[in-house]
Amino acid sequence: MRLFSALLIGLIFGTGIAVSGMINPAKVLNFFDLAGSWDPSLALVMAGALAVAMPGYRLVLARRAPRFAPEFQLPDTRLIDLRLVAGSALFGIGWGIAGFCPGGALPALGSLRPEALIFVAALTLGLLIARGLKALAARSPQSA
Amino acid sequence: MSTGFTPLASLAGGMLIGLAAVLLMALHGRILGATGILAGLMRSDDARDRSLRAALLLGMVLAPGLVLLVTGDWPALEVPVPMTALIGGGLLVGIGAGFGGGCTSGHGVCGNARFSRRSITATLSFLIAAFATVHVTRHLIGG
């Protein structure tokens, strides 16, 4: 039941990504192209997701614990630093270049398109590079 | 290449994304961030944790097939950029999400839904960067 529910949740997420157009780089890039072929659809994806998640989280997080786990795992850092801002900016640049974000590309793998596989391979390598760089920075004493 | 405005499908799809995020928190106590799920799969040595992440990923990957089954068509997916852009963009997305601690789903949906100031900052940063990048590639250098 634990794993089946996770599979179902992944399927709901992926279906939302596919139906909403987030799976489609052409649509994503047009959302960002204000001065050209602008397609405002993706603003509604974010609006729809938040309209459900905001009240949903409020209800769920008022409970004592999740169904299949001992506790809620929420990020404990509240730090707003250069890593957060510059890392997110790099993310946005890459998103604007490729048109895929991770949430769009992982479900896209299931469409058997080679472009999705190429992007996910590069994304995975990028995550490993970031992990390596962070481990290096943590080892040198004067770094933040 | 222009794409049509799809307000209803995009709103409904967005609501499914939000529903998935709420269910994952209610049942498993986790943030639904695509980057976090993928990154954790490569790091975790806890079999229980890995199996949960693998099940989530498998569900995601099955989604286009479900759309094909129900509607008779694959979901629209056009890639208007060359392979070099997919590779370069993918690397930047991975490095950036690794340092920024999340992506569109983790920060943009889950973090913002619980009013995390970190996530609101990250979301503004990546949205501004993406708008600027597409403006540059399509109107300043790409023409």
From TrEMBL, chain A:
Pfam families: DUF6691. The chain crosses the membrane at residues 42-61, 82-110, 116-133. InterPro entries: DUF6691. Keywords: Membrane, Transmembrane, Transmembrane helix. It comes from the Bacteria. This is Permease. It comes from Paracoccus halophilus.
UniProtKB/TrEMBL annotation, chain B:
The keyword Protease does not apply. Its main location: membrane. Keywords: Cell inner membrane, Cell membrane, Membrane, Transmembrane, Transmembrane helix, Transport. The chain crosses the membrane at residues 12-42, 54-72, 84-110, 122-141. Pfam families: Sulf_transp. InterPro entries: Sulf_transp_TsuA/YedE. Belongs to the TsuA/YedE (TC 9.B.102) family. This is Membrane protein. It comes from Paracoccus halophilus.
